[in-house]
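Re: [ENG-882] Designed sequences occasionally contain unexpected residues at chain ends

Forwarding the minimal case from QA. Structure tokens:
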């Protein structure tokens, strides 16, 4: 590709005329060059705005926030459409450094993910996307060059090209989205970017002292558990070193652990977690071994490394969200991975509200089951939700022939496992291992379950069959997952049926969640309240204490409104609590 015409702007007088001109455009390509990746510790160097005739390159080192204000309304308005590749990155710099909200976005990165429909092999950087959709090659050599000094001709040409390419890319990708019926879901995704920009900049508060204290307690316990295991296991193994002392065994070595257990008369094939769990009730030493594994794993995954992720400028954690983290559209986060933080109170209480604030912790109640009820129109399932019944309790009562008040907590958990097991497309064998029952028991449970919820059975069967016949699944928003599985291979067919049942349900849950995030983000404008955490079906809002009760209502209402856009029949409920930390009130 040849160089693209550009105009470099470094004086404030040019900005108002530029703003007027841009306001008349229907589509603008937006890109930035920055001195690094972290918006808090790096600087915004260039803002490239592409219109068909040329690329305007603004040197932000020579212009103040105030100089650039005339552009703010254009960048945040629904029109002109702003085309960007991974707009979240540029948006974070624009918001943090210039106070501008990037919205009205067409994101070619998210568009590429949607068009790939779950393909694991496609790459989604600007270079591969340009190659795939425009059949052009893009030279990214200057990307990581030093953007903080005097700009070279090569750097300016690179900046211009990166901005200019977005316009033809938009034209082509819009057509592809349209042809693939993906425009509606693309709209949901694009609308969610501005809230996610704020979510990442907001970050989440961690009580560092409490976290350190928790780690100390765990380390102390680990030392005790370790010596207890060494005494019991190395003594049993009777491996002595040259000096006649028992040789310590390596607790991380499965073969050494297995041999040592064998010396104690505990024979196992391997030391996988589930095997150990089965033995633990009869052999306390196995329980201790599991505890050791649990502690050392947690200490290495969620230990001091989390403290290293604290941003030196804000003192908070700023997880990176992947908006389309899975083929069903679920969001995931990393550094740290919030969805993997252990659910125990010990951990979650460290994610506390800073002084003067409270947290509103809100999650949908049984959202996938409600989606299933809405899709299948199963009368028993809808009836349960209409009555405001506790679904898992109801299921337990139906399965075990008990009255509602006879159901124990354990039976309720069991029924929950069954409810989710079946929508995750598990067969009798999978269910048996999930519920720790025999396959025969699981089979009869499934039969009873489907007798109680006949239209659920039919809906799941049809979804499975559709996956086999069409090789893909969609949500009502159009979110698409093309299964790269061979229906003629029995094992792959089983997997196909499994994802076929689950994809529309989980995909709809993602659609709902993203609409809710957008609605809530809009509702919180101007309030001392912000979304600080979003995982799966749960939102956490940090709110100034005096307005917590008011915002609690707002959170519940907007989450229900988000769901109502996709569900026509079933009632939706949200569990909301005001808390001092990331804990459910229950
Ligand atoms: N989940 C699951 N399997 C389980 C339990 C939970 O897959 N045995 C997943 C589901 O995606 C569920 C989410 O975890 O939506 C949240 O779990 P939880 O709140 O325990 O599920 P609910 O159905 O809301 O149960 P409860 O009424 O007890 O809150
Ligand atoms: Mn729940």
């Amino acid at each position: 590709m040849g160089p693209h015409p550009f105009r470099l702007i470094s004086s404030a007088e040019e900005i108002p005329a530029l703003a007027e001109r841009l306001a008349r455009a229907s589509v603008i390509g937006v890109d930035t060059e920055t001195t690094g990746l972290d918006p808090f510790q790096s600087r915004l160097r260039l803002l490239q705005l592409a219109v068909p005739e040329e690329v305007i390159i603004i040197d932000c080192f020579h212009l103040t926030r105030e100089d650039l204000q005339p552009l703010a309304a254009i960048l945040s308005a629904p029109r002109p459409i702003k085309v960007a590749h991974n707009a979240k990155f540029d948006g974070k710099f624009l918001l943090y450094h210039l106070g501008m909200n990037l919205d009205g976005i067409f994101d070619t990165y998210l568009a590429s993910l949607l068009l790939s429909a779950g393909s694991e092999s496609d790459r989604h950087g600007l270079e591969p996307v340009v190659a795939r959709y425009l059949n052009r090659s893009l030279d990214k050599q200057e990307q990581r060059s030093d953007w903080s000094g005097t700009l070279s001709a090569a750097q300016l040409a690179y900046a211009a090209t990166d901005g200019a390419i977005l316009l033809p890319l938009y034209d082509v990708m819009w057509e592809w989205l349209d042809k693939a019926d993906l425009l509606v879901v693309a709209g949901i995704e694009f609308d969610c970017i501005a809230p996610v920009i704020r979510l990442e900049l907001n970050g989440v508060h961690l009580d560092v002292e409490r976290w350190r204290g928790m780690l100390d307690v765990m380390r102390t316990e680990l030392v005790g558990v370790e010596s207890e295991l060494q005494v019991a296991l190395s003594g049993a193994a009777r491996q002595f070193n040259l000096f006649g002392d028992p040789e310590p065994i390596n607790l991380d070595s499965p073969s050494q652990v297995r041999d040592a257990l064998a010396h104690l008369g505990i024979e196992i094939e391997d030391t996988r977690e589930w095997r150990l769990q089965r033995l633990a009730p009869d052999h306390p030493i196995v329980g201790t071994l599991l505890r050791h594994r649990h502690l050392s794993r947690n200490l290495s995954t969620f230990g001091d490394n989390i403290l290293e992720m604290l941003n030196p400028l804000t003192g908070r954690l700023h997880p990176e969200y992947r908006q389309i983290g899975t083929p069903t559209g679920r969001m995931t986060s990393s550094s740290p991975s919030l969805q993997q933080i252990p659910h125990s109170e010990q951990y979650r209480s460290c994610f506390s509200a800073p002084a003067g604030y409270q947290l509103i912790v809100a999650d949908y109640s049984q959202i996938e089951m409600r989606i299933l009820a809405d899709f299948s129109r199963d009368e028993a399932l809808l009836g349960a939700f209409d009555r405001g019944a506790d679904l898992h309790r109801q299921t337990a009562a139906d399965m075990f022939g008990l009255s509602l008040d006879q159901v124990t907590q354990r039976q309720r958990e069991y029924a929950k496992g069954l409810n989710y097991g079946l929508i995750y497309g598990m067969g009798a064998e999978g269910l048996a291992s999930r519920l720790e029952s025999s396959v025969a028991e699981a089979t009869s449970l499934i039969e009873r379950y489907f007798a109680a919820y006949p239209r659920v059975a039919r809906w799941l069967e049809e979804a499975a069959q559709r996956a086999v016949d069409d090789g893909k699944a969609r949500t009502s928003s159009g979110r698409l997952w093309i299964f790269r599985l061979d229906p003629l291979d029995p094992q792959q067919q089983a997997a196909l049926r499994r994802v076929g049942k689950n994809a529309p349900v989980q995909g709809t849950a993602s659609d709902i969640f993203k609409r809710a995030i957008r609605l809530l983000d809009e509702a919180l404008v101007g309030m001392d309240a912000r979304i600080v955490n979003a995982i799966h079906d749960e939102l956490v809002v940090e709110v100034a204490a005096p307005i917590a009760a008011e915002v609690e209502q707002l959170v519940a209402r907007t989450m229900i409104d988000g769901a109502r856009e996709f569900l026509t029949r079933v009632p939706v409920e949200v569990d909301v609590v005001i808390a001092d930390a990331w804990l459910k009130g229950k």
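QA comment: On inspection the terminal residues look reasonable. Residues 490-523 form the longest helix (34 residues). Proposing we downgrade this to a documentation issue.
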